[in-house]
Amino acid sequence: MLATTFILAVEEIDPNQVTPGVEGFIATGLFAIVSLLLLLDMVRRIRRVRYREEARINIDAEEAANDLIASVNKETGNTP
After folding, report:
1. pLDDT tens, the chain, 80 aa long
2. Domain that includes residue 59, residue range
């Protein structure tokens, strides 16, 4: 009984009535645009974090080099 009801229900469906229509197309397009914008924003933020980390590493290396030079000058009695 259930199988016959299902077959009858499938036969009664008009393929033109089950399309998403213009609303579905617009919703899908908006979803795609929002996803793209979020992806671009994420890439920009990741780059910014990476550049900040590189800048911190460079600053730390310069400070370490300056400290080393200062300690060598202090030990040898040299003045810059």
Report:
1. 555 555 555 667 776 777 788 999 999 999 999 999 999 999 999 999 999 999 999 999 999 999 998 888 888 877 76
2. 36-80
